[in-house]
From TrEMBL:
It is found in: Cytoplasm. The lineage of its organism: Bacteria, Pseudomonadati, Pseudomonadota, Gammaproteobacteria, Enterobacterales. GO terms for cellular component: cytoplasm. The gene is recX. This is Regulatory protein RecX. Keywords: Cytoplasm.
């Protein structure tokens, strides 16, 4: 990230009215922009600790308000008493109304400006890097038996820049033809079927896995004994 885009957390929180003692790890207050920034940073750290994310994917998740978790009540209902005062009934009714009203409230909108500040902060601390993300994604998906065509489409859907994707594939050490052969043998056994009906099943399966026609043809052409 260029120096002029570097984000200082203290300056960032102070800009939105944060106190000097604010901490990104502390429980966020209910009000105030500094608390919202604080909560977004904690949320971004949690998401990135679970798995790699590209910038667009992380941005979408941060812009989506989290769903409030309501703990289910497994306790047995209390046995009704013979009589209850009208005051007790009134109190229970009011509490139930408050809970139902809170559940109906729409989630608070998340500011794109806040999210952008958190994205910049993540870049500054090397928590986000789309180039490295593309490298690791290609490596991980190829190990699971997926071809370059499918992996490229998935990276594009995640919003990774096309040039970064192309560079990552150029620098990848995956032998796609050898991988295609290995996946086909694992699925259909060796020797691979040569009758057209069975061979077409191999073709359809390998296309589904994301391999190119040339790579599929090579599993017969280049690996014949």
């Amino acid at each position: 990230m260029p120096d002029d885009k570097k984000v200082n957390l203290d300056d960032l929180l102070n800009q939105y009215g944060g106190d000097e003692g604010s901490s990104m790890f502390s429980a966020p207050p209910k009000e105030g922009d500094a608390a919202k920034i604080n909560a977004l940073i904690s949320r971004a750290m949690r998401l990135l600790s679970q798995r790699d994310h590209g910038e667009m994917e992380l941005r979408k998740k941060l812009l989506t308000p989290p769903v409030a978790f309501s703990k289910p009540n497994y306790s047995k209902p209390a046995k009704p008493k013979a009589q209850k005062s009208s005051l007790s009934f009134s109190k229970e009714w009011q509490e139930e109304e408050v809970q139902q009203k809170a559940a109906r409230l729409p989630p608070e909108e998340i500011s794109p400006e806040h999210v952008q500040s958190v994205i910049d902060y993540c870049y500054q601390h090397n928590w986000l890097d789309d180039a490295k993300f593309a490298d690791r994604y290609i490596s991980g998906r190829s190990r699971k038996g997926y071809g370059a065509q499918r992996i490229r489409q998935e990276l594009q859907q995640k919003g990774v820049d096309k040039e970064l994707i192309s560079t990552a594939f150029e620098e990848s050490e995956v032998d796609w033809c050898a991988l295609a052969r290995d996946i086909a043998v694992r699925k259909f056994g060796e020797p691979l079927p040569t009758e057209w009906k069975e061979k077409s099943k191999v073709l359809r399966y390998m296309l589904y896995r994301g391999f190119f026609q040339e790579e599929i043809q090579s599993i017969y052409r280049d690996f014949d004994d």
